[in-house]
Design brief:
396 residues, mainly beta, SH3 type barrels, L,D-transpeptidase catalytic domain-like, 26 strands, elongated
Length: 396
């Protein structure tokens, strides 16, 4: 009897449960919608594509919508998840090692002495004129009752009171294990990206520092300013970035499978070998009016080190004197590729026409290059004068 009661009780519970399901089902059945108030919906047989190509039924048609559609749109401009890797590596750090110790000389006219005895007697035998860019290479130091003196690479002596020792900047470009598939670049100065290509767009929370590496997916001109896209809805003023834009087509006039590309607009140097990019880095080229001349040239003279000096202004206000400039490769009269130990702003125009590199980058390039290698200098913006009559012999 007890079992019969329990059985009836269970049947009653099941019946009530089934009735509740039926009532709920009828209450949510589709309601006809008039043509005046249409709604969009997928057919029961439609399926959304899974994002990132993860659909196990890849042979089955699916609707490209939602996250999958967004990823597809980003993929069209090269933005993938995860991001496409850059197969790069740094050259050996030891390329920074050079047998020179440098010092900056004060701007005023400075006496030089042929011997330490001349220095003690205050009998100068030479002088360095007025100028803001004067550097010496130090050989030895002597402390005397008249003060401390250093012998320079010219064998002359200079007072420690008029010099300041400096170190070189340890910046290096990249070697490429594989060709980059999309443009990339270095941040030149601290900046915050924006959600659109305009200074009227809201800033993001992403702060970028000098030498940060970014991938570049697009560019737009707004109010005469070029903006580059570094991520989804993330833009940076191009003036804060130097780009490497992969280009594997040999320039007209280059008759070898080896050439060095100097991009004046981006302030980058790219080394090409056959159909590969093997190296890229930041540089500093000639500032207005001492532009680096565009054209196709060949390396004709290479020196491990040499001193450079000169002036271009009539009043010699731009006089420069530089001892032991390292890894020099002349290619266009007095214009050369060389290390610039005094330069700390690679990525900006700074020179009198030469192509300035960091010491380590100039060292790597010197080891790679050889006499007769091509140097292709160009300005994709078209702002640099191209008339050869505009140019003199050039300088450091």
């Amino acid at each position: 009897m007890y079992k019969d009661i329990e059985l009836k009780k269970n049947k009653l519970i099941i019946g009530v449960f089934l009735l509740a399901i039926l009532v709920t089902a009828f209450s949510i059945m589709p309601v006809p919608v008039s043509a005046n108030n249409p709604i969009d919906y997928l057919n029961a047989t439609d399926a959304l594509c899974l994002p990132g190509g993860l659909d196990p039924f890849s042979g089955v048609d699916c609707v490209l919508a939602g996250p999958a559609k967004r990823l597809d749109e980003l993929g069209q401009i090269g933005i993938t998840y995860p991001a496409q890797p850059l197969y790069i590596t740094k050259p050996p750090f030891e390329l920074n090692n050079i047998p020179f110790a440098y010092a900056r000389v004060s701007n005023e006219e400075v006496p030089l002495y042929a011997t330490i005895e001349d220095a003690l007697a205050n009998h100068p035998t030479n002088k360095l004129g007025l100028g803001k860019t004067k550097y010496v290479s130090l050989l030895q130091k002597i402390s005397t009752e008249k003060g401390v003196f250093y012998q320079t690479s010219t064998s002359e002596w200079i007072s420690a009171d008029v010099i300041t020792k400096i170190g070189i900047q340890y910046f290096q470009g990249f070697l490429f294990k594989e060709n980059p598939k999309i443009p990339f670049g270095w941040i030149l100065s601290e900046t915050t990206s924006r959600k659109g290509p305009s200074y009227s767009s809201v800033e993001t929370d992403n702060l970028y520092s000098r030498y940060n590496l970014v991938r570049i997916y697009d560019s737009k001109i707004e109010n005469k300013i070029e903006w580059v896209m570094v991520g989804p809805d993330e833009w940076i003023d191009h003036r804060f970035v130097s780009r490497v834009i992969p280009n594997y087509e040999k320039p007209a006039g280059v008759e070898s499978d080896r050439w060095i590309e100097v991009n004046l607009y981006e302030q980058v140097l790219i080394v090409h070998e056959k159909d590969r990019i093997v190296f890229a880095t930041l540089i500093s080229t000639g500032v207005d009016p001492f532009f680096t001349q565009p054209g196709v040239f060949t390396i004709y003279k290479r020196l491990v080190n040499e001193y450079m000096r000169g002036a271009f202004e009539a009043d010699r206000s731009d006089y420069y004197y530089l001892e032991d400039v390292p890894f020099i490769q002349y290619y266009d009269q007095a214009r050369a590729l060389h290390g610039a130990y005094w330069n700390t702003l690679f990525g900006y125009q700074r020179s009198h026409g030469c192509v300035n590199l960091s010491v380590a980058d100039a060292h790597w390039l010197f080891d790679w290059a050889q006499d007769g290698d091509y140097v292709y200098v160009w300005d994709p913006s078209g702002k640099t004068p191209t008339d050869p009559a505009f140019y003199g012999p050039g300088g450091v």
